[in-house]
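Summary of Year 1 activities. Much of the first year was spent building the evaluation harness for sequence design. The harness presents a backbone, in tokenized form, and records the residue chosen at every position. We chose the following record to illustrate the format because it has been used consistently in internal testing since the harness was completed.
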């Protein structure tokens, strides 16, 4: 397959001013008529004689006319993935008619059917599976879409923009025309048709525009749409208040579909959502599910400006819209809920999944230089690290200048397809700050490592922090230039109070020294020393407050330092971080002991620190739950030189058991104190209470006492919400109470078999079970009615639930987990290449394991490689990981 390079970017030779589409939806096939009003691009130097359009091999071409003249076969040729018309004038109207087969579309790109509904997914390059087109984001066109279909089977027919005409046709059919006044790239096109029901609300923008808000779903799900609607309204208000962004059409629609490759899609005025990101009800949705709905609804809404009004010039710029929009949605969620909890959750995700990606064979900068298949670049790096890079700009500029920068970016580039460089330039121009050095974040992959040391000179009352930075090599980038890194720090005195520090930036701009408790140190060099004067005693540094940069930071904290920071740091994030560091330190030394066959003895400090936290009723319960949760196996793996899955799993369980036994009384009383049978509400305080309660329950079962199993079973049966019943189910199943587990798994399924999203949770609880025998259970579940290989949500729950969330079983030493995954990737390669290539990820990380496992993992990658014709998606990931 061809490699596409950013350096080869060229402006399009032709533009499409108007796109008129007509879809005839029939049972076995769909006819697509496209009328494109085109002209040469005045900005293009070359003047090619002919025109090349993108178009998938599977398009069945019926006819082409150029300025109403029928072309014959000597006027054009089919290309491997397109169509070439040999000669075209400077301006012309091109009409094509093709036949496509949505029912056979298992890749879920282009037009396909999901449980009887027609829907589309055009990002990144799905539109070329619908018709011949210039399917690239810098070709923006005004669209008009007519849909014709059987009236009783498809009473609702939607597309972007506003409905302008509708009518009945022969044979019980009807039609509708939608017009979208905003020029857009083809990736934002959408069509939906089916027997959909909806809820409706209304929003008046700050500028006085009345917007109809509609959320569509299958009839049975109509009662699960209110939370998404409220989230949408909150997001619309927030974007006006925080970014000054208003909605720009009279209608905003969301449609829920069951078969979807990702979470949701921001098509102009017509978002298509995975049901898992829009449906929510207390009975069927966990707290995490509610928060996901809120976050994804907001994310897609925010794209209306950061993505749609201002879009990407080419797909290398993907992080321009995704990184910025993730930053925006994270800030929204922080404002709606607890800011610290949201930050902790984001950082935990970044440090496990994104750091691992940055250390793996697919590592790439947030502005990649090349790709084979763009779908492989919807990554943690583009999204999450991209958001961290925007956050660092926010930190460096301050909220006010950042807002000026975003206002300038939106006004300067409204209606354009631009680059990450344009974004950074707008930030520079609005703030007056020079971000030249900061741009390294866009071009260099890898996670920087900061080594921090300090010295205190009592005589001169001077404290010095020396920070060195390095960054490991990544594919194609052996050496790295230093990054510009904002390191937010505080210094604590022996009472745990923040020392007052001078705000360096304020001094430069106002000549007045302002006193702050958190100072942003700006690291530019490989090694830099920062000096603090007037410091009376050796302070304890609180480093990288709020996780001010996506880096790994090492400082020789003692365990006493960490327990001190856990209870005194004024930065909530760093209080949690101190607990994590303490946990990591203790777990890592026990892992070493375990590997050296030494007896495991748990340092008392951890239980003592946890006891203090459990006793402090003034603390936010959500943060207590986070602090009490030991570093995950995934995080411990990420930190390990060589990942020993069995040692990590065994030691973490040992520590959980010890803590549970030592803190049983406190855990039980906290569990009871957090029990309340109010009607369910997904507000921050109630979520916090349930989170803490379920963390305590998890520990209590680790004591292996029957009475606590009874507690969990009672919770399972009596819970009035999915969070508590699913937590109880998960804990009982994963704690190895096999008999009880079988009974309640069966009860759970019988109760929820009619709710696909709940059944997905049921699959994933079983797939991620660390107990022995899980793989055969997963194989059996693949034959269950509840499973469908063509539905990505099922594949993610069951197959990825096993391969990505069940390290001990996936890495079994008989290679059974590896073989199983390779088999599924080979099958999915034909059915759904995007899902196949995402699924293969755990195998690609083979370098992190011992030689025995490395060999077995590589053998399965090779087996995939040799299995026949690979999709570009799977080929890229597998070949890069074997390189
Ligand atoms: N912008 C959307 C990306 C997306 C996507 C990409 C590839 C294949 C399927 C897809 N579905 C959605 C999602 C977002 O970030 O908002
Ligand atoms: Zn997005």
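For this record, the design step produced the sequence shown next.
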């Amino acid at each position: 397959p061809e490699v596409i390079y950013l350096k080869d970017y060229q402006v399009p030779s032709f533009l499409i001013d108007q796109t008129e589409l007509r879809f005839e939806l029939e049972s076995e096939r769909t006819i697509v008529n496209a009328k494109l009003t085109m002209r040469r691009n005045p900005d293009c130097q070359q003047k090619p004689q002919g025109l090349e359009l993108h178009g998938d091999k599977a398009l069945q071409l019926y006819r082409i006319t150029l300025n109403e003249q029928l072309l014959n076969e000597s006027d054009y040729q089919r290309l491997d993935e397109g169509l070439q018309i040999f000669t075209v004038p400077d301006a012309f109207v091109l009409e094509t008619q093709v036949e496509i087969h949505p029912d056979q579309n298992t890749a879920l790109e282009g037009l396909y059917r999901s449980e009887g509904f027609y829907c589309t997914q055009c990002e990144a390059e799905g539109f070329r599976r619908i018709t011949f087109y210039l399917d690239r984001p810098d070709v923006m066109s005004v669209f008009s879409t007519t849909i014709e279909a059987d009236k009783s089977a498809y009473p609702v027919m939607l597309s972007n923009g506003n409905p302008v005409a509708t009518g009945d046709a022969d044979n019980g059919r009807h039609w509708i025309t939608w017009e979208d006044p905003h020029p857009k790239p083809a990736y934002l096109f959408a069509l939906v048709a089916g027997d959909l029901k909806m809820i409706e609300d209304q929003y008046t923008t700050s500028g006085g525009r009345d917007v109809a808000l509609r959320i569509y779903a299958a009839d049975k799900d109509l009662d699960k749409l209110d939370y998404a609607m409220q989230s949408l309204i909150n997001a619309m208000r927030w974007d006006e208040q925080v970014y000054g962004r208003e909605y720009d059409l009279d209608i905003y629609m969301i449609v829920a579909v069951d078969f979807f490759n990702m979470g949701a899609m921001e098509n102009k005025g017509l978002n298509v959502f995975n049901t898992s990101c829009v449906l929510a009800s207390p009975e069927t949705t966990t707290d995490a599910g509610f928060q996901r709905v809120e976050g994804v609804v907001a994310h897609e809404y925010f794209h209306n400006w950061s993505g749609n009004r201002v879009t990407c010039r080419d797909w290398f710029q993907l992080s321009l819209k995704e990184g910025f929009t993730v930053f925006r949605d994270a800030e929204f969620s922080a404002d709606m809920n607890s800011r610290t909890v949201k930050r902790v959750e984001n950082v935990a995700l970044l440090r496990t999944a994104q750091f691992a990606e940055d250390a793996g064979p697919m590592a790439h900068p947030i502005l990649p230089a090349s790709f084979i298949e763009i779908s492989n670049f919807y990554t943690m790096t583009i999204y999450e690290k991209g958001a961290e890079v925007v956050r660092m700009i926010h930190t460096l500029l301050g909220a006010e200048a950042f807002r000026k920068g975003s206002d300038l970016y939106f006004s300067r580039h409204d209606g354009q397809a631009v680059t990450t460089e344009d974004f950074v330039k707008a930030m520079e121009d609005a703030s007056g700050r020079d971000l030249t050095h900061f741009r390294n974040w866009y071009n260099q992959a890898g996670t920087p490592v900061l080594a921090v040391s300090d010295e205190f000179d009592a005589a001169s009352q001077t404290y010095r922090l020396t920070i060195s930075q390095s960054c490991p090599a990544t594919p194609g980038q052996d050496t790295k230039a230093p990054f510009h890194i904002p390191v937010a720090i505080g210094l604590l005195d022996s009472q745990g109070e923040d020392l007052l520090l001078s705000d360096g930036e304020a001094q430069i701009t106002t000549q007045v020294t302002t006193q702050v408790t958190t100072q942003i140190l700006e690291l530019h060099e490989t090694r830099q020393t920062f000096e603090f004067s007037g410091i009376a005693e050796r302070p304890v540094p609180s480093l990288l407050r709020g996780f001010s940069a996506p880096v790994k930071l090492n400082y020789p904290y003692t365990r006493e330092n960490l327990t001190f920071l856990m209870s005194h740091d004024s930065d909530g994030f760093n209080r949690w971080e101190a607990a994590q560091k303490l946990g990591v330190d203790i777990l890592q030394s026990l892992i070493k002991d375990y590997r050296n066959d030494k007896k495991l003895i748990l340092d008392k400090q951890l239980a003592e620190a946890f006891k203090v936290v459990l006793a402090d009723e003034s603390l936010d319960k959500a943060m207590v739950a986070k602090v009490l949760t030991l570093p995950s196996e995934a995080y411990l793996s990420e930190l390990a030189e060589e990942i020993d899955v069995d040692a990590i799993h065994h030691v973490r369980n040992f520590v959980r058991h010890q803590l549970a036994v030592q803190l049983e009384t406190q855990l039980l009383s906290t569990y009871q104190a957090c029990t309340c049978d109010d009607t369910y509400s997904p507000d921050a305080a109630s979520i916090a209470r349930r989170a803490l309660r379920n963390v305590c329950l998890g520990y209590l079962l680790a004591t292996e006492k029957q009475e606590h199993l009874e507690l969990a079973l009672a919770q399972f049966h009596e819970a009035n919400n999915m969070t508590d019943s699913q937590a109880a189910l998960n804990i009982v199943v994963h704690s190895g109470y096999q008999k009880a587990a079988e009974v309640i798994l069966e009860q759970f399924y019988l109760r929820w078999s009619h709710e696909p999203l709940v059944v997905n949770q049921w699959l994933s609880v079983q797939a991620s079970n660390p107990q022995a025998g899980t793989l055969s259970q997963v194989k059996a579940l693949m034959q269950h009615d509840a499973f469908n290989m063509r539905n990505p949500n099922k594949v993610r729950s069951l197959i990825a639930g096993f391969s990505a969330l069940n390290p001990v079983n996936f890495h079994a030493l008989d290679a059974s987990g590896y073989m199983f995954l390779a088999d599924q990737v080979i099958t999915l390669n034909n059915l759904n290449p995007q899902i196949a290539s995402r699924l293969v990820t755990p195998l690609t990380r083979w370098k992190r394991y011992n030689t025995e496992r490395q060999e077995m993992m590589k053998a399965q990658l090779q087996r995939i490689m040799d299995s026949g014709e690979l999709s570009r998606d799977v080929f890229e990931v597998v070949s890069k990981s074997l390189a």
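The chain has 29 helices and 33 strands. Quantitative recovery figures across the full test set are reported in Table 2.
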